[in-house]
Write a structure and sequence with these properties.
Elements (H helix, E strand, L loop, with lengths): L18 H8 L3 H23 L2 H18 L9 H19 L21 H12 L3 H11 L5 H8 L3 H21 L11
Helix pairs in contact: 1-2, 2-3, 2-4, 3-4, 6-8, 7-8
């Protein structure tokens, strides 16, 4: 679990960063950058891994995001919390990587490494993760960003450079695909019966 600067547990991108650390980072202080990496490296990695489904790609993406952050932090004005700003950089890097992929197949051809899960129901969490990995990368991105990260369809339209109907359509197809996968193979249903 990440700790914030006061030693209290942090909450991913919602962690607070003190003004002095930000000011030092904006002046190019490498220790301040190291502090920011300590606070936000894991949340960036977790988000990238959930969407990309590949540990090596997620690790590379985190490095890319932090290098970009070093080059752009002087432009951070504090209009939004720092974590939100960094999350936006991370999402944009993920979307750029997805755009660069040449295929958008129904099922990813890569072998997916399943991350450790914190849930009390480990089998269900792994099954849910396995199902998500069977979605095309863009569908997985839209679903995770909308359902778990709270992005609106308008925000997704901006991020993907598409219309709102694009993300609505992708989300509907992703949910249908997940539903079909669970119905086809009910013993892997990670969601308990809702009776």
């Amino acid at each position: 679990m990440a700790m914030n600067q006061t030693g209290e547990p942090g909450a991913g991108f919602a962690q607070r960063v003190d003004a002095a650390t930000l000011a030092r980072a904006q002046r190019g202080d490498m220790q301040a950058f190291a502090n920011l990496y300590t606070l936000f490296g894991r949340p960036c990695f977790n988000l990238a891994l959930r969407i990309l489904g590949n540990r090596a790609q997620a690790e590379d993406l985190v490095q890319e995001v932090f290098l970009k952050m070093i080059g752009t932090i002087r432009g951070y004005r504090g209009d939004a919390p720092f974590g939100s700003w960094l999350k936006r950089l991370t999402v944009n890097a993920i979307i750029d990587q997805l755009r660069g992929q040449r295929h958008d197949a129904d099922i990813d051809s890569e072998v997916v490494e399943l991350p450790a899960v914190d849930s009390g129901n480990t089998a269900a969490a792994v099954d849910a993760w396995s199902l998500l990995q069977r979605l095309p990368p863009r569908a997985r991105a839209v679903l995770l960003l909308h359902e778990f990260e709270g992005y609106t369809h308008a925000e997704l339209a901006t991020v993907f450079g598409q219309s709102e109907s694009y993300s609505k359509s992708i989300l509907a197809r992703a949910l249908k695909r997940l539903s079909d996968l669970v119905v086809t193979n009910p013993e892997t249903d990670p969601w308990p019966s809702r009776n």
